[in-house]
Amino acid sequence: MSLGEFDIIARYFTQADARSDVLLGIGDDAAVVAIPPDRRLVVAMDTIVEGVHFPAGTDAADIGYRALAVNLSDIAAMGAQPSWMTLSLSLPHSAISWLERFSAGLLDLARHHGVSLIGGDTVKGPMVITVQVAGLVETDRWLTRAGARAGDLLFISGTPGEAAAGLASIQQGVPQSAASRHLQRRFLRPEPRVSLGRELRTLASAAMDVSDGLLTDLDKLCAASHCGARVDIDKVPTSAAMQELFDAATCADFALAGGDDYELLFTVSPDRAAAVPASASCIGVITEGTTVSCLRDGQPVTVARRGYDHFSAKEAAP
Amino acid sequence: MSLGEFDIIARYFTQADARSDVLLGIGDDAAVVAIPPDRRLVVAMDTIVEGVHFPAGTDAADIGYRALAVNLSDIAAMGAQPSWMTLSLSLPHSAISWLERFSAGLLDLARHHGVSLIGGDTVKGPMVITVQVAGLVETDRWLTRAGARAGDLLFISGTPGEAAAGLASIQQGVPQSAASRHLQRRFLRPEPRVSLGRELRTLASAAMDVSDGLLTDLDKLCAASHCGARVDIDKVPTSAAMQELFDAATCADFALAGGDDYELLFTVSPDRAAAVPASASCIGVITEGTTVSCLRDGQPVTVARRGYDHFSAKEAAP
Fold first, then answer.
1. Are residues B161 and B221 in the same domain?
2. Which ipTM did the prediction report?
3. What is the total count of domains within chain A?
4. Residue B312 has pLDDT above 50, yes or no
5. Hey, are the CB atoms on A30 and B74 less than 8 Å from each other?
6. Are residues A173 and A306 in the same domain?
7. pTM (2 decimals)?
8. Which member of A4, A40, A130 has the closest CB to residue B88?
9. Does the N-terminal or the C-terminal CB of chain B have fewer CB atoms within 10 Å?
10. Inter-residue contact A63 to A46 (CB < 8 Å)
11. Could you tell me if A72 lies within 8 Å of chain B, comparing CB atoms?
């Protein structure tokens, strides 16, 4: 059974509970929304491709979830509240079961965060999914990567590396266990740290989400802030599930260079550090200069693999 | 030579002249823009795929132009002024000459309309291009497809069918001539009717852009407005270039069912019709009921082919 573009939208992407600030939703040439005068608009767009951002054969519900989650994570890193999204779906064919599961994964997460789907496009083509999310933030109160200053403390939320460990456990066919299920869920269903981002809005000096690996993303934060950083590897939170399935060196590699965690990496002035929520850990300090260095047992160590550059599809090196 | 994601953005998609309402542009987790309190935000997203929306081998400059133009056309149909865009570029490889030409086509058109590129994503994958454009419109002054009333006059801008004739002349390898060059330019470089849309904002009762074919898009306008229409085929503007290269029946088919024109189809109350700009032609009238019918020489005629549904990749029929 083949469905046309309008059938697909009407059947699978209509939400019961649209936001009141959506003045015109799906179905016209464009959508219309209202922005409160004391808010700025924050806009993020991410694209995911089978075989690049998720393994072939991933459940469509997980793909739908991910397509939105990676964008919510960007909005969270700005300290903004997500509001609306648009969806571009390029699909080779309109398989009903796939669409049902994809839209369920997407819209369940959208509902959880109060996000309305206001428009988009469905086309016949190779499977490529793009979501744009717009959010709102108090005037002059958004976070950027550029505000870190020497002496600020460096924090990471959650336990970095678990998503990379989950992906590896899928790719390597690790036997199912509580640990592997936990890690795979961390990869397949990353939780965008929206409420943490909102808390950080008046607390952090700089923030970004970790999608390509802790160290390579820290490099970007430091470049934007014109500073360096020193990471105390011993302070990076460790995952019991990860340690159960992988050796210590692999766990360290996942934690420092694994992508897809969608945790928040942020900096806070030392006098405000006590206010940082317990879900985040202090893992280092911002320094003068431009170098991101690592310590283990108090001694400098060189970490060769730092993360992933999706486009050049090569490992990022220092 | 392989370029990473950040190199691509910095090298090819940096604009010299960013808008002052762009508070944070490309390079962070998300962009931040300011919306004037007396404006609503209008959002459109379109995706184009090689082989579906443009022929394989199309000049990358034309692809870049098209990716933005189709979105500007949606914004124009709402009566809004385009402001910013985001770009998702899924590319199998980062060929420098392709990127140079693509970005030139995209950014030249953006500059012409005062649109800033504020963010997006570049990923390795099959060639799929998504652009989202946001525009601004005066509070409660946007156009929709839903406002047409029986008795309103029906207008179309420009000369519909030329883009389909241009595509056909490319596909059929019609020898180059002034006529074929004109038509091919109409297909490759459709002019979004932004200034006309702005004029229509206080004049039209309903509007949409014609992307899938005049009759099939009129069907959508009538469905949204809960009305019918009667099109006087003899009043549909004819193109001398089209008539030079194609027979009368083919020209009529292009005009009524050809896609990709990106002209504006709109309705105006008869008492305001004198104010409609001369670039548009009155081609019929809105009626009671739900039927879109056609007249030729004053007699009802049945037109089988009405347009194109991109997803089901079949001709739209009544």
1. yes
2. 0.93
3. 2
4. no
5. yes
6. yes
7. 0.93
8. A130
9. N
10. no
11. no
